Structures are given as C-alpha cells and as structure tokens.
Amino acid sequence: MRLSHQCNRLGIRSVLNNSNQSLVRLIKLIELIHKDETLQKDLEWKLMDFKKESFRETIEAYVLSEEPRNIIKESVLYGPRQTENAINLFNGNFKTPSNEAEKEYLIDKMLWKLGFDINIYPTTLQYFWKKLKSFKTVGTEKTALSESDKDEIRSAAVNFFVLLEEILEQSLSYITWTLLSDHYIDTKFEYNFEDARNVMCNKLNGHQVGSNEPLKLDNTGNNNLFGLIEGFTALIEVCDSLYLEGKINI
Amino acid sequence: MPHFHNKAELTTFPFPSKLLLFDIKPSNYSELKSILSALPKNFNKFKVASVRNRLEHKNRVKDRVDNFPTSKEILEACECIESTIKQIETAGIYPNVFLFKESSNDKFNRVSYSLEDWKGNTIKLKPLPQFSGSKLPGYKKPQVISSIINIGESCELLRFRYQESSEYLKFWKMFPRKKEKLSSTAIHTTETVENIVTEGQ
Question: Does the CB of A127 have a partner CB in chain B at under 8 Å?
C-alpha cells in the first residue's frame, strides 16, 4: 500500500493512494469518542432512525446515508465532552471552538484529516459580490449627502473598486491567455494567473485604442480601471485583426 | 502536431493551430466578442470610471462645483457592473474555479461528471473519449470551464486545469530543469569567448 502526503491550510495528512479509508476512519472516530456507555446511549438515542442490532451497525448505517459534514456536527461535535474526546484523538493544532465560525473550521479540519476532500475556493468573487452589495446599499440609501455620508460612501467604494479591478484584471488576463496561446505545446492546459497576466501584457501592450495613448498594462498588477477597460477593446481589436488576416502560423 | 493526428478516425486532435483563437468555432467567437465588447461600452455609458474618480477628494471639486456622484449615478454604475460581471462569470470569461462533486456511469458506458463552483452552481460534463491524448485536464482536478467555447466542433466545453498562485510555485517555477543540448554554433561561440579572454590575459 502506497501513501501520499498532502497539505493545505487545514493541515498535513497521509492518505492511501489506491483505497479511500475516510469513511472507515470516520466510523472509528465515532466509536472511539463514545467508549463511555452513557455517551454511547446518548448517541444511540439521537440516531434512533438508524437503529440496528449493534452500536457499530447503527453507526455504519448512519455514516453511509448522511453527509460527512453533518455527521461530524451531529455525532462528534455535539457536546463539550464529545468534542474534547475527538480533539484528543487528532494529531496537530486542534482547539476547542468558541464560536460557530471556529466550529465550522474545526469540522473542515477534521474531515480533511480523516481523508475527505474539502472544496476550498478562491475568495475574490465572494468578496466582490459582498462589497458590491454594501456599496450599492450605502451609495443609494443616502440622498441628501452630508460630508460624513460622503465619507461612508467613499470608504465602501474603495474596497469595492479594488476588487472590481482585480476581477477585471483576472478576466482580461485569462481570456487573452486562452485565445492567444498554444495550449497543447506551451500551457499544457494549465492555467495560472501570473503566467496569464504576462501573456496579456505581451499581447496587448503598445496597442492603441482610438486616439488614446498606447496601452500599458503592468504584469505586477499595478493596473487601473481605465487601462483594464481599454484592454478589453484592445483584445477584440487584436483578435479581429488576427482572425481577418488568418495568421495561423504566428 | 501530436503523433496520433490524422492516424485514426475515432480520435481527433482539435488544436492544430498555434493560437486557440483559430481553433474555435466562428459562432463561439462571435458570442465571446459580443460579451467582451459590451463591457467597455456599458462601463462608458454608465460612467463607471468617472463615478469612481469623482468619489475621491482631489477629483471632486471642479470650478468650485462639488462633483460627488449622485445616488442615481452610483446606482446605475453598480447595476451596470453587476450585470456585466455576472455575464462574465456565467460565460466562463472570469477564471471561476470548479471542483469535482460527483460522477455517474450508465450501462452504455456514458459517463457524467458534475463539478461545482463556490456558489454551488453546477456544470455537468458528459465527455466522449474522442480527445484522448490532447492533454485536457482530468475531470476530478480543480479546473476553470468556459461555458461558451467548445472544443473543436464538439459539444464538449473547453477546460483548463487550475493552478493556484503561491510563493512555493514561484520559487520552483523553473524546475525540474531539462539539460539543454548545446548546438554547434553555441559551442563555437563559447570557445570564441574563452579564446578572447585567454588572449586578453
């Protein structure tokens, strides 16, 4: 049996390459923290819908029909004693949660350690929609603007526009890279933001949109809203001219 | 061109050009173009850049008139940004990451993979094994999926494996290095330089 070692922000773990042991580990965890007869009876009462002949069978039936996240919440972290027992079984930096957010993090950490895959997404879009909502609310609910209202709008706008620039920069980089790269030979169909931003700067810098100055995009991320908006027009013009000329062997 | 290109009838190589732009269907390109060109058009129409600039202290007062954007201007700019970014996100022009959710397989060997994004939006991929060898990413890998660009003439959506930026990646970017073969001209040049140095000494 071969082991792989993996790490992310939730910690380090070792997993078997050709067999997923996560469910078996989860069952074992529940069994171990309910060694005490009283705790076992408490859980059996909670799991009365899955009741089978033995405690082990009940847990198996439960684990095979519920979402792992709910299982940890409902049958591991549902009381101080159970939580403490569970934390003592894990190696690494595990702390008793003191609020809901910490509890959610602990659930992710336990699932990850047991061998489940946890979907961790980049947060830019999430923050963007949140900031847009708050900017829209602050900017539109105040009609007669005092200086303090303006300050409030401005402070909501600063964060929002920074995120907008980030989103536009990522989009322009990604779509320029997608259209103007050889993916079979060069990128091997692997996208990475820094490389895409370099391609964007290579392909679009110096292009003149209308009578404006030639475009100057920065590959370290120092790009303003105006330049990025122009970049989209530049990209279409570059693609159109390539498309028309049919320069297939560039 | 890969070795299997034009050698078998069941598998095809959909990326014969050096730029992907020339390998996508004209209908895909025109749809993409209409979304891309709408962005600067709408942002200019609803003065997004101007609203942003006039929020700052230094750009506000012009000829003693306070140009701070009105609530109506802010609302219009916000709505324009909202609809544009939503469109970009849905079309897969923004590199939105999709992660594996589930897969199924029927008795006719039709496989279906579901991948979902941070919002829980799901994309169902039903691939045919026609592009094997084209280096496309596996379905269980984190990936960005374009909803408006198909691979060649097929229904399959274009996908790229997503690689998160990190200091670790930056550090190891050039590794593993391949040993470069020196061409005869390069060897000659090296020798010439060494000769000059020797002569100079």
Answer: no
Chosen domain end from A114, A148, A183:
A114
Predicted TM-score (pTM) of this structure: 0.84
Residue where the block lists tokens 């890998």: B141
Residue A81 lies in a domain: yes
Domain tally, chain B: 2
DSSP state letters, B43-91: HHHTTHHHHHHHTSSTTTEETTEE-PPPHHHHHHHHHHHHHHHHHHHHH
**B55 and B115 fall within a common domain:** no
Encoded amino acid at B198, one letter: T
Tens place of pLDDT per residue across chain B (201 aa): 777 666 777 777 888 888 999 999 999 999 999 999 999 999 999 999 999 998 886 656 666 667 889 889 999 999 999 999 999 999 999 999 999 999 999 999 999 999 999 999 999 999 988 887 778 999 999 999 999 999 988 999 999 999 988 777 778 777 777 666 665 555 454 444 444 444 433
Domain for residue A119, yes or no? no
Question: Which among A114, A132, A152 is the end of a domain?
Answer: A114
Query: Two tokens at B17?
Result: 């050009």
Q: What is the ipTM of this complex?
A: 0.84
**B151 reaches A (C-beta below 8 A):** no
Note whether B36 and B67 are same-domain residues.
Answer: yes
| Yes or no, beta carbons of B161 and A191 under 8 Å apart | yes
Name the burial class of residue A199, with classes exposed (0-12), middle (13-18) and buried (19+) by CB atoms within 10 angstroms of its CB.
buried
- Which domain range does residue A20 map to? 3-114
Give the single-character DSSP code of B119.
T
User: A109 and A141: one domain?
Assistant: no
H runs (alpha helix) in chain A? 22-33, 37-46, 55-63, 68-75, 80-89, 100-114, 124-141, 147-179, 193-204, 225-245
Task: Give the distance from residue A78's alpha carbon to the nearest chain B alpha carbon, in angstroms.
Answer: 27
The minimal CB distance from B82 to the residues A132, A174, A248 is found for: A132
Query: One-letter amino acid identity for B107?
Result: K
- Ramachandran sector of residue A100 (left: φ over 0; alpha: ψ -120 to 50; beta: rest): alpha
Say yes or no: A84 and A177 in one domain.
no
Domain with B107, as residue range(s), is 95-176
Question: Structural domain tally of chain A?
Answer: 2
Size of interface A-B (CB pairs under 8 A): 160
d(CA A139, CA B51): 11
**Contact yes or no for A132 and B163 at CB 8 A:** no
Q: Does residue A130 fall inside a structural domain? A: yes
